[in-house]
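Task: sequence design from structure.
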């Protein structure tokens, strides 16, 4: 360890951030309301339709479908609820396993648990947070067998029912490889596209490849409805099921209350959807600002030895939701110093999530070798990523 080299590196990173975004304090991410938000919210209040019925929630769904190219969109209260019902309607249940990345936000794994199933963790690429599907394929070849068109984990004798990829920080995973893997092993695909609204893989929007895709509109996401989420699907019978089960499974009738299964009260309120409609009108501008912010950081970080920025994969257009910095292994001891110094300087910098298998609640779940994720978690930080950073005030 060379102390002066270490000090120099920490200084260079803070300097690069400051040169990119200015010296004023900055949070990791803040939303941007510069369109029709006030207008639509007022219209929504004036209409008195603030709850689960109203024109904004219908419009938001159709706007989302149009923007993503999905045949159907169903708006719900948040991304976690969306993941939960997505797995529910494809019949993930007790005794099943679902493949989940080790490096993800907790919601991905929790949704599996809500269904009574077990998350089964897979690794990311070396030096990259995207999934390593060729490593996963080798693992599945050695650890599963096919039985009656189902993929069985030979160590637990449980069915591996589905896989959830996650497009980390908005960067699409290698979807062609994943689609092949799903076909080869008979595994259903549910995409966690919570971070990747506005991200495309070979021209196709993330979240539209699997049986169902999930979006989130939490306050820190690329667009926000306060809290909110959506389900995308190209399958019209699944879309109907999703709408039904997220609206208490009530049979539509002018006055009677009849529910034909145990449904969920997960419908997005019209008030939140009003915000969503305005936000979605401006999504391309927000994505462009984030892509521009990446270019600015790219310049100010240039030449810093031992540091690289996470950039979009080939053949993809990423929304660059959060800007990610990767520290070389030889400097990984500097992560905590970087977090501390930056935050003390008023710069909102954050580490990666704790890996799922390193949480006590998921420590006993099945998993493959997770060396790459275990290395990345020590070396990745997120730096200020708000679109407003390049919008003057
Ligand atoms: C934000 C997020 C979700 C869901 O978020 P909600 O806060 O429930 O809307 C799910 N998965 C990932 C990877 C996320 O980043």
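Answer:
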């Amino acid at each position: 360890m060379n102390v002066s080299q270490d000090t120099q590196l920490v200084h260079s990173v803070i300097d690069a951030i400051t040169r990119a975004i200015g010296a004023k304090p900055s949070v990791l991410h803040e939303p941007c309301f510069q369109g029709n938000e006030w207008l639509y919210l007022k219209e929504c209040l004036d209409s008195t339709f603030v709850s689960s019925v109203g024109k904004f929630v219908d419009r938001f769904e159709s706007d989302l479908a149009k923007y993503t190219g999905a045949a159907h969109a169903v708006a719900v209260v948040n991304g976690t609820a969306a993941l939960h019902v997505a797995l529910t309607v494809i019949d993930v249940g007790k005794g099943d396993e679902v493949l989940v990345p080790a490096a993800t936000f907790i919601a991905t794994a929790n949704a599996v648990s809500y269904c009574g199933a077990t998350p089964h963790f897979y690794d990311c690429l070396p030096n990259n947070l995207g999934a390593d599907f060729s490593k996963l394929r080798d693992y599945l070849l050695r650890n599963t067998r096919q039985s009656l068109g189902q993929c069985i984990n030979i160590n637990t004798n449980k069915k591996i029912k589905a896989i959830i990829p996650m497009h980390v920080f908005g960067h699409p995973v290698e979807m062609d490889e994943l689609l092949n893997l799903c076909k080869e092993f008979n595994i259903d695909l549910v995409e966690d596209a919570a971070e990747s609204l506005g991200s495309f893989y070979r021209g196709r929007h993330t979240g539209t490849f699997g049986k169902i895709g999930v979006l989130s509109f939490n306050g820190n996401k690329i667009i926000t409805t306060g809290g909110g989420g959506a389900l995308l699907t190209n399958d019209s019978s699944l879309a109907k099921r999703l709408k039904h089960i997220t609206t208490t499974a009530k049979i539509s009738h002018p006055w009677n209350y009849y529910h034909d299964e145990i449904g969920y009260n997960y419908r997005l309120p019209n008030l939140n959807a009003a915000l969503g409609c305005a936000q979605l009108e401006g999504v391309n501008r927000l994505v462009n600002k984030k892509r521009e912010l990446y270019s600015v950081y790219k310049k100010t970080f240039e030449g810093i030895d031992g540091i690289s920025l996470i950039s979009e994969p080939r053949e993809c257009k990423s929304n660059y939701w959060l800007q990610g910095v990767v520290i070389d292994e030889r400097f990984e001891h500097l992560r905590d110093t970087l977090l501390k110094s930056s935050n003390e300087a008023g710069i909102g910098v954050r580490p990666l999530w704790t890996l799922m298998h390193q949480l006590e609640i998921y420590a006993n779940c099945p998993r493959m070798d997770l060396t790459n994720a275990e290395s990345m978690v020590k070396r990745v930080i997120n730096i200020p990523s708000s679109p407003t950073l390049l919008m003057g005030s």
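The domain at 37-281 is CATH 3.40.640.10 (Aspartate Aminotransferase; domain 2).
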